[in-house]
Amino acid sequence: MASAHPEPGVAGRSRRPIAWSRLASAIPLYAIVGLSAFLMVFPFLWLISTSLKSDGEALIIPPVWIPNPILWENYQRAWEALPFGRAYLNSIYIAILVTLVQLLTCAMAAYGFARVRFWGRDVIFVLFLATLMVPFQVTLVPSFILFKQIGWVNTHLPLLVPPMLTNAFGVFLLRQFIMTLPLELEEAAVIDGANRAHLFGLITLPLIGPGLAALGIFTFLGTWNAFLGPLIFLNSSELFTVPILLNSFRGLYNTAWPLVMAASAISVIPVLVVYVTLQQYFIQGIALTGLKG
Amino acid sequence: MLSRRAKDNLVGLVFIGPQLIGMLAFVIGPMVYAIGLSLYRWDLLSPPTFVGLGNYAEMIQNETFWKVMRNTSYYTLGYMALNILTALGAALALNRIRGKVFFRTLFFMPVVTSAIAVSLIWLWMLNPQFGVVNTFLRGMGIAEPPKWFSSTAWAMPGVILMSAWWNLGYNMVILLAGLQSIPESLYEAAMLDGASRTQRFTHVTLPMLTPTLFFVVVVTFIGSFQVFDQIFIMTNGGPADATRVMVMYIYSLGFQRFDMGLAAAVAMVLFAILLVMTLVQFRLQRRWVFYG
After folding, report:
1. Can you give the residue range of the structural domain that contains B62?
2. Judging by beta carbons within 10 Å of its beta carbon (0-12, 13-18, 19+), is residue A55 exposed, middle or buried?
3. Is residue B16 in a domain?
């Protein structure tokens, strides 16, 4: 590396005065990072640029950066071509419901494993950890057959019920959080007459906020972006989530790239706005849940 | 009144109940079902017939199965190399500059974006005729740029390129956290001993980062073997099966050819591969659970 900065952690503590030659030698590093950042963001810029062009302008070589005229109506056309409003409502309610219920069931199980001495606890906990090794892709076919037999195919139930009740990683993560809390808090509350429900809901839950936030962000994002599950379980377009509706949009407007890009932008922009606003929580969440397999 | 022990058993069951039911109904149940299913021939319409290990025998004699295994390995190696090296480079660079948060936010942006949206963007960018990538390559003097998803040779590199871009930020953030957790005192000690920049990197940064790097390698491997979404959208396994990977194969056997038994057998192979890698991860996980 051409940078003259000291190794990580030492920067800022160096007692030497700023040397302009060292700053100057850092310029290549900034140039490389800046160029990389541009390449990382470029696909999004190109998405927006194409989404505002006419079909003909999108195919001009060399490509045009700023569309002329800017066709804002592409967004309206894309929005009206397929039931995006409906898909948004479906995605929002599924993601919120799954996230809230999953956080509750994970926190409950985590509390049970961390604080209650019940028969077979450790064996059952190991069994939970073992299920981390079974990804959704492996049980895809039997799950489909199961849901078909009980009439859940082409309903939202396969997208709601299993994730609400299964996240072994979430249980593990929250249990680690609870284990670090001092027992004295609960013991004091018991003397004051608190029961288990109080201990869980009024003492433990508020103290594992960061863990719940990290888990919640990733459950929400994973549910919001899910593709394979909705693809297999949903047939009717009024049940579609945003990703699956976008997939069928692409089938209908195969070569009308500006419209396809406008539809993609409609699905991407709200997520990116939320992400940029809350980015520090996303990053902290990764640091906490980064061990997820 | 219940005894304290009986009461604890009951309370414990109530707390873990929902997740226990979920685990039995949606993970262990289907897993056991899948093992059984892999021993039958079944198209969902006529009654299933028991074929023993027949599906497995058919699988290993099947050309497509081996092609799929090779494709999945190709994807995994290419994706891991490109993704981890670029993520490591980005983490090392970002760790040294001002405006870290700003750049980190940009690099991580693709990670939060859905598979379908990023796949459609890349389909357009890698369009052989009108895509911006090939326009750029022609401008650089390459008269015959790759035909990407229309070419058996270039489809997989295209998929790898797109996937590495998509998930670069994820591994970068983990590696950055690993870099930041290296104690300053180690660098100070190394500097007192007169270690050069290169020596500090090879003798402090790299050894201290190996647990994180190893974790990243294992998790990325496991993720690579489960790849589906972007390949399904961009190439649907084509052209000529050039990008058909394991989960795509399971999907087409199960939901297009309705060969449920064979689909389950291939799923078992996938499971075995992931099991080995997850066990490796578990064995080494204790060392970095609290690095955050």
Report:
1. 56-288
2. middle
3. no
Contact between chains at B177 and A290 (C-beta distance less than 8 A): yes
pLDDT at residue B143, as a whole number: 86
Q: Which are the contacts of B122, defined by CB distance < 8 A and separation ≥ 6?
A: A43, B158, B162, B165, B230, B234
Backbone angles phi, psi at B133, to 5 degrees: -65, -50
The confidence band for A233, taking pLDDT boundaries of 50, 70 and 90, is: very high
The average pLDDT across B222-242 equals: 92
Distances (CA, A) of B206 to A159, B83, B180: 43, 18, 13
What is the DSSP track for A49-112?
A: HHHTS-HHHHT-SSPPSS-SS--THHHHHHHHHTTHHHHHHHHHHHHHHHHHHHHHHHHHHHHH
Q: What's the first-to-final CA gap in chain B, in angstroms?
A: 45
Residue B28 falls inside a structural domain: no
Higher pLDDT: A149 or A13? It is: A149
Query: Sign of the CA dihedral B278, B282, B287, B292?
Result: positive
Interface residue B106 vs chain A (CB under 8 A): yes
Min CA distance, A41 vs chain B (Å)?
7
Average pLDDT of span B176-194: 87
User: Residues B184, A10: contact at Cβ < 8 Å?
Assistant: yes
**Beta carbons within 8 Å of B216's beta carbon, 6+ residues apart:** B84, B87, B171, B174, B175
Question: 3-class secondary structure for A169-182?
Answer: HHHHHHHHHHHCCC
pLDDT attached to residue A289: 63
In chain A, how many domains are there? Answer: 2
Strand pairing partners for B40? B50
Structural element, H or E, at residue B229: helix B229-234
CA atoms within 13 A on the CB side of A75: 12
- On whether the CB atoms of residues B261 and B40 are closer than 8 A, the answer is yes
pLDDT band at B110 (very low <50, low <70, confident <90, very high): very high
Instruction: Quote the CA–CA distance of A288 and A214 in Å, as a whole number.
Output: 7
Residues 237-276 of B with CB under 8 A from A: 247, 250-251, 254-255, 260, 263-264, 267-268, 270-271, 274-275
Is A133:A198 a contact under the CB 8 Å cutoff?
Answer: no
- Preferred mutation among B72, B112, B217 to probe A, highest tally of A CBs within 10 A: B112
- Using only C-alpha atoms, chain A has a radius of gyration, in whole angstroms, of 25
Place of tokens 């023993």: B52
Q: What pLDDT is stored for residue A293 in this prediction?
A: 33
Query: Within a domain: residue A175?
Result: yes
The H or E element containing residue B40 is: strand B40-41
Count how many domains chain B has. Answer: 1
Instruction: Say if A74 is an interface residue toward chain B (CB within 8 Å).
Output: no
Report d(CA B248, CA B228) in Å as an integer.
6
* CB-CB contact of A286 with A213 (8 Å): no
CATH code where residue B195 lies: 1.10.3720.10
Are A241 and A263 members of one domain?
Answer: yes
pLDDT at B216 > cutoff 80: yes
CA atoms of A216 and A15, how far apart (whole Å): 43
Residue A5 has what pLDDT? 43
**Nearest of A253, A291, A280 to residue A51 by alpha carbon:** A253
- pLDDT for the residue B22: 94
Residues A122/B255, Cβ–Cβ less than 8 Å = no
